[in-house]
C-alpha cells in the first residue's frame, strides 16, 4: 500500500458504475443476505463500499469491499451508493480482497449478553433473528444465560478437555450445505467465546468438544 495518508472521503456514485471484482472470495449465505437487506431497508444505513477506479473500464469503479452490500442496495432499488475511492494497483487490491472481508475480532461474552438483553426488551427473539446472525433459539438461549454459570461450565469443560487431551491432533473432515455451515459456525462462535487457546482452530476444536459433551451428558 502507498505510504502516503489515504483520504477516506465518502462520495456518492451511481450504482450502475460499480463493477464486482472477479476474484472476490467472500460469500454470504442466503439467510444472512436476507438479514443484510432487512437491516438496510429498516435503517437506511450501511457502511460505505471501498472501490478503486476500474483498471479496464474507464469511468467505472471496481468493488474491493462491499460486494454483498452493493447487491443488497441494488435489490432495494438504490440508484447511488456511498463509496470510498482508493487508488490502488492490482497487487494491493488482491491483498485487500484477501484481508478486508476476513480480519475481525470476537465478541466479549459479558458485553454480548448485555447487548442481547437490551435488544430483547425492545424486540421479540423471532424479530431479532431476522436481523442478527443467529437463530431465534440461539438468541433465546443466550438471553437466558447467566454469565457466572456460563463461565463455570466452560471452565469445568476446559479442565476436563485438557486432562483427557491426546498428544496428537486427529483430523475430522465432513461436508455441509450453506444452512448447516451457518448453524455450526454460530454454535461454535457462542461456545468458543471464553476459550483461551491460542489459535482459532484450537478454539473451534475445544468448542466442538464442549457442544458434543453437552449432548452426551443429556443422552
Helix content: 40-55%
Mean pLDDT: 78
Give the CA-CA distance, first to last residue.
55 Å
Structural class: alpha/beta
Coarse morphology: globular
Instruction: Indicate the low-confidence ranges by residue numbers.
Output: none
Number of DSSP-assigned strands: 5
**Count of helical segments?**
9
How many strands, what sense, and barrel or not for the largest sheet?
Answer: 5 strands, mixed
Radius of gyration from the alpha-carbon trace, in angstroms: 21 Å
Strand neighbour order, sheet with most strands: 1-5-3-4-2
The tally of domains stands at 2
In percent, how much strand structure appears in the residues? 5-15%
Element pattern in H and E: EEHEEHEHHHHHHH
In short:
This protein folds into two domains: 10-99, Conserved hypothetical protein from pyrococcus furiosus pfu- 392566-001, ParB domain; 109-218, no CATH class. It has helices spanning 30-43, 67-75, 90-99, 109-122, 125-129, 136-144, 147-164, 178-191, 200-218; strands at residues 10-14, 18-19, 49-53, 61-65, 80-85. By secondary structure, the chain is α/β, with parallel strands linked by helices.
List keywords for this structure.
Conserved hypothetical protein from pyrococcus furiosus pfu- 392566-001, ParB domain; 51% helix; single chain; 219 residues; globular; five-stranded mixed beta sheet
Amino acid at each position: 500500500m502507498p505510504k502516503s495518508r489515504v483520504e477516506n472521503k465518502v462520495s456518492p456514485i451511481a450504482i450502475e458504475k460499480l463493477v464486482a471484482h472477479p476474484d472476490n472470495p467472500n460469500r454470504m449465505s442466503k439467510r444472512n443476505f436476507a438479514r443484510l437487506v432487512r437491516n438496510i431497508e429498516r435503517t437506511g444505513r450501511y457502511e460505505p463500499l471501498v472501490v478503486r477506479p476500474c483498471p479496464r473500464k474507464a469511468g467505472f469503479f471496481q468493488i474491493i469491499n462491499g460486494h454483498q452490500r452493493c447487491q443488497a442496495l441494488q435489490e432495494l432499488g438504490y440508484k447511488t451508493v456511498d463509496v470510498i475511492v482508493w487508488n490502488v494497483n492490482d497487487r494491493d487490491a488482491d491483498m485487500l480482497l484477501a484481508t478486508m472481508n476476513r480480519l475481525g475480532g470476537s465478541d466479549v461474552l459479558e458485553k454480548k449478553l448485555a447487548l442481547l438483553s437490551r435488544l430483547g426488551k425492545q424486540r421479540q427473539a423471532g424479530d431479532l433473528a431476522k436481523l442478527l446472525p443467529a437463530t431465534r433459539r440461539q438468541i433465546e438461549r443466550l438471553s437466558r444465560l447467566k454469565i457466572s454459570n456460563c463461565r463455570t461450565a466452560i471452565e469445568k469443560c476446559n479442565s476436563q478437555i485438557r486432562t483427557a487431551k491426546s498428544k496428537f491432533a486427529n483430523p475430522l473432515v465432513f461436508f455441509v450445505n450453506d444452512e448447516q455451515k451457518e448453524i455450526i459456525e454460530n454454535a461454535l462462535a457462542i461456545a468458543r467465546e471464553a476459550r483461551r487457546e491460542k489459535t482459532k482452530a484450537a478454539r473451534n476444536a475445544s468448542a466442538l468438544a464442549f457442544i458434543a459433551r453437552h449432548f452426551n451428558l443429556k443422552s
